[in-house]
Every structure is written in C-alpha cells, then in structure tokens.
Amino acid sequence: MQKIVFIVFVTIGVSCTTYCPKQCDCDIDNGLNRALCDDQNIVSIDVGVSKAVQIYSLRRNLISELQNFCFKEIGYQSLRILDLSHNVIFWIGMHAFSGLDQLYHLDLSGNRLRDIPAEVFWDTPGLDILDLSGNIFESLKNEPFITHNRLQVLNLNSCRIKFLPPRLFNRLPNLKKLDLSENYFVTFNIDIIRPLMKLERIELRNDYLHCSPDIIAAETYIASQRIAYNKLCTKKLPKISEKMISMVTEREPVNIDGIWNETSEKNRTEPVLQQNKTLTPFEKFDKDFSAFQAFVIGLEVGLAVGVVGTYVWLRRFCSCGQLNCIAPRRRRPRNRNDEVRTNLLRNHFVNVDLETPPIFRREMPDRRAPGPPTAPVYETISPRPTRDPPSMADVIRRPETPPPPYHECRLNI
After folding, report:
1. Which among 222, 177, 179, 221 is positioned nearest to 198, based on CA atoms?
2. What are the φ and ψ backbone dihedral angles of 225, each rounded to 5 degrees?
3. Kindly report the CA angle at 243 between 241 and 245, in degrees rounded to 5?
4. What is residue 15's predicted lDDT score, i.e. its pLDDT?
5. pLDDT at position 314, please?
6. How far apart are CA 68 and CA 408, in angstroms?
7. Strand, coil or helix: what is 84?
8. Higher per-residue confidence, 166 vs 283
9. What DSSP element (H or E) covers 130?
10. Distances, alpha carbon 166 to alpha carbons 150, 214, 292, 388, in Å
11. How confident is the model at residue 287, as a pLDDT?
12. Quick check: 97 and 103 in contact, CB under 8 A?
C-alpha cells in the first residue's frame, strides 16, 4: 500500500514539473528566474517558458507585433525585465502590456516602430526604464509622446528625429535621464525640457547641432538647473564691452611721404605709355578664334573625312564603282557544231521539202555504166510540185540525214 502511494506522488510530481524549452537557456540571475531565448528565429512571445519567469529575453528574433493582452493571456504576470530588442516589431496594441504590474525595465530598441500610442505603457505602473533607441520616429506630433507618472529613464538615441515639438515630454513628471543624441534635429528649444522638473541628466550629442543662439540659451538654462550635460559650445563668448574693444585695434602711424613720394622728384615723372606688345601668330589666332569657328571647322573636317572614307570603301569593295554592283550576264560562246545541229533540226521542221539541207549537200555517186572516170556529178534537187507536207514519220525515216543523238538535241541560242 505504501509503495502504491509513493508511486502516485512521484507521478504527480513529474506531471507538474515544467521544463525549459529547447530554444531557451533558463537560470537564475540575482535571485530572479531568467529565460534567455535569443537568436532563435522566434515569431511569437509564447515559446513554452514557465509562467514563473521574471527576466525574459527575446533578443534578435522575428517578432513583428504585440497583440492586445498577449502577456496577460499567457500568464506572464511576474515579469520584471523584458527584452524585445532587435526584432521587427512595427505595431504594438494599446493594451499589449496589460497585466505586467511588476515590470520596471522594458527594452524595445532596434525595432521598426514609427508611432506608438501615448498610453501604451499606462498598464505598467512600475515601469522605470524604457529604451526606444534605434527606431524610426522621424516625424513627431506636438503632443505628449508618452504618458507615465513613474518613468525615470527614457532613451531615444538614433531615432532619426528631425524636430522636437515643445509639448513632447509634458506628461513625464518624474523623468530623470533623457537621451536624445545621434538624431537629426538642428535646433533645440528650452520649452522642451521646462516640464521636466526632476531631470538630472540629458544627452544631446549630434553632428547637426551648432553653437546657435538657441543652443547657447538651452545650455545656459541646463547649467542653471544643475543638469548634467556635455556642452557643445565650449568656447567662451566675449561680452559686449570685450567685443567693442576687440573690434577697435590700434595701428601705428604710417609715413605717407615714404609710400606716395609726394615731395620727391620721382613722383614728377610723366607716365610712360605702355607699348603695344607684338603678338605671335599663335597668340593672335587664339585671341581671334571663337567657339563657333571651332565648331564650323570641326564640322567641315568631319564631312571631309566621311567623304574620303566613303570613296575608299566604294573603291575597295565595289569593283563596278557603284553602290549596288550587278554582275553582267555572260553569254555562252557559240560553237560551230552547235550551229550545224540547230540548222539541221530547223530545216527538217521548217523546210520539209528539202531532203538534204542546202549547205550540206553531199556528193552522189554516178550510177551509170562503168567507164572511164569522169568528173563527179552533183545531184541537184529540183523543186517539186506542191504537195501535202509529209508526216513526222516520213521525215524521221529519211536515210539521208540521220538525226543526231538524243543527248545532243539541244537548242543553244
């Protein structure tokens, strides 16, 4: 029975035990429960950390916004230090920090905040330190930036602030330290810090601030209120009487006779007229030459070079001397044999009455009785009476003039 009771208690104890998430490192710092969940690409504040956490660090993650009542719904009501720096937070709900009554240090530096509600930190009554450096508060309205009765330290370093409205810090009565360094404003008015009655230290380091009358007046007021401050105008300005004395300087008497030579004879010499200097041809050309003439000469030289280049190109690449060259047609040289074949074929179809072309009459042997040799007898063809033209078959069967081979029956004209 005792063993069963012991096992039940052990099981209950194991089930109630909470473990530290894999993304975090959990330890104790100055007696406070700390959870460090840095550089883990976390996109939400709820990663499974115990509700008893008091120091919660979510630096360098990917958290983009804080919804209303996000900490209260999870149960993180024991938080005292919350670090959300170097995320991508661009929006914070009006009641995002509701339920964090014990929170006294909040770090939102290095985010993308451009504007926040003035009452966003009203749900954290114990807030003492607020770090908003590295955000983008370029344009601020002439109204209270933050409303809080207990806030003591405010860091607005490197927030790209271009102008400081007079009512910016009217609702921070207990503010003691203010950092406005590394911003873009070029003037500073005393009315900005007049409502801060408990201010002990202010930082105004800025490359755009110069020793203007407004800055000198602000530094005088800061010094009169015994506020710690690194002065920008370290050079002491002289008083009015000192300015008048410094402006009037005594000079030694000057001997005019030694300078002007009024009483000496050297001054009585007549002025010598300056002779005209002979100019060289180059100097004369440089004097008379104008920009318009240079333009005209350059244009003429360019045209001449273009014409010469075009002529050389035509002579080089066009053998005919023209821009578009067309090669002449070459006629095939006629051959005597071709002319013979052409006439032969033409006679068979044109002069069908001729058995043999006139120019190719051959010698016909004499068919008379043999005897002594006589002179050769040429056969003459007498014109026959008109008759119907023979057919193509009769022309082809004539044995006197055999047709030429098939591959030579071409008309080469």
Report:
1. 177
2. -90, 5
3. 70
4. 40
5. 78
6. 108
7. coil
8. 166
9. strand 129-131
10. 21, 14, 61, 133
11. 72
12. yes
| Confidence category of residue 378, pLDDT binned at 50, 70, 90 | very low
Kindly state the DSSP code that residue 268 receives in the 8-state scheme. Answer: G
DSSP codes of every residue in 137-173: --S--SS-S---SS--EEE-TT-------TTTTTT-T
pLDDT of 295-339, one tens digit each?
888 889 999 999 998 888 877 766 565 556 665 555 566 666 666
CA distances from 277 to 273, 274, 280 (A): 12, 9, 9
Give the Cα separation of 134 and 179 in Å (integer): 12
d(C-alpha 194, C-alpha 145), whole Å: 15
Distance, in Å, from the CA atom of 301 to the CA atom of 65, rounded to the nearest integer, reads 71
pTM > 0.70: yes or no: no
- The residue written with tokens 């008109």 in the block is 386
Torsion over CA: 195, 218, 201, 180 (sign)? positive
What number of other Cβ atoms are within 10 A of residue 227's Cβ?
17
Closest listed residue to residue 91, CA positions, set 71, 108, 73, 74: 108
